[in-house]
Write a structure and sequence with these properties.
4-stranded antiparallel sheet, 8 helices, 6-stranded antiparallel sheet, 288 residues, 3 domains, alpha+beta
């Protein structure tokens, strides 16, 4: 079976053969993209006539290679890639529902929290705010989708410039907007443990730095002192600090990151301590 690099080359060379004639004005291009916890090769279809389209999806070829390995059928995989483009390239009419006027999208800026060490290269390109060994980055929600998901882009300095805000202002915007768009969801796991995410079950761990959310969690747990277990970038668990064996939490996090959490979703190797009175997160322990 062909390796990843050969697969990338073949897909780039042949993708136009699997698209209808209406896409004849597009040209396939690839570029290396820094994503959270990883870098991937993105395939894009760019219009030769810049007036055709101002938005095109990125298809990550590492993901498509995994699909190819499952299918063991190159043409079938190519059809799947072509379908992604056909279903997601916005025509000029469709773009009317997707605003690219970033000044009008300030109320759609939200937070995502990621691991700093795993994302040094990505963070070098982005406005962000450090939180111990994590970092808050920002996204703009571009569109809410019919399937209950959403389209978003990461905020870089170009987006900031288009918005007309600086790095401190974007954090303030995100702090105000995040719980409006990502409604917090608090689920009881036991009388002494809660899981926190949001209504999209995506990027939910950013709630750990939102004081209003942590106040609600504290009230539900009946304590002002909690340990935070960062299950992934999407959710975290809080437990009462009093009477809890910290070493067992560290072992649980290590097993979860190793066995259950996707590499691209891992947030941290640390257990954190939260004190409601101080409204402060600090490092409690780690497994490395």
């Amino acid at each position: 079976m062909m390796d990843q690099q050969l697969f990338n080359n073949v897909v780039t060379e042949r993708i136009m053969d699997f698209l209808p004639p209406i896409y004849a004005g597009y040209k396939p291009e690839t570029k290396r993209v820094n994503k959270v916890n990883e870098a991937k090769t993105a395939l894009m279809l760019l219009p030769e006539d810049k007036g055709l389209c101002s938005a095109t999806p990125m298809v990550y070829l590492e993901d498509m290679y995994e699909l190819f390995q499952e299918k063991e059928d190159l043409d079938d995989t190519m059809k799947s890639i072509a379908n992604i483009f056909m279903n997601n390239i916005y025509s000029p009419t469709e773009q009317e529902a997707v605003s690219f006027d970033f000044k009008s999208l300030k109320n759609r800026v939200v937070m995502e929290i990621i691991n700093s060490e795993r994302n040094e290269e990505l963070l070098s390109e982005l406005p962000h705010r450090e939180v111990i060994n994590m970092a808050v980055i920002y996204r703009v929600i571009m569109r809410l989708c019919d399937d209950g998901g959403f389209d978003s882009i990461i905020v870089n300095d170009h987006v900031l410039e288009e918005m007309g805000v600086d790095r401190s202002e974007v954090h303030e915007l995100a702090m105000r907007n995040t719980t409006d768009i990502f409604e917090p969801v608090i689920m009881e796991l036991s009388p002494k443990a809660l899981m926190i995410t949001n209504n999209f079950q995506t990027f939910g761990s950013s709630a750990m730095i939102i004081s209003e959310v942590m106040e609600a969690v504290s009230k539900r747990l009946g304590t002002e002192r909690m340990y935070i277990i960062p299950c992934s970038i999407h959710e975290f668990i809080t437990v009462q600090a009093e009477g809890t064996d910290l070493e067992s939490l560290v072992a649980m996090l290590a097993e979860g990151n190793r066995e259950f959490t996707r590499e691209c979703d891992i947030l941290s190797n640390c257990i954190y301590y939260y004190d409601l009175k101080e409204q402060k997160i600090s490092k409690a322990a780690s497994y490395i």
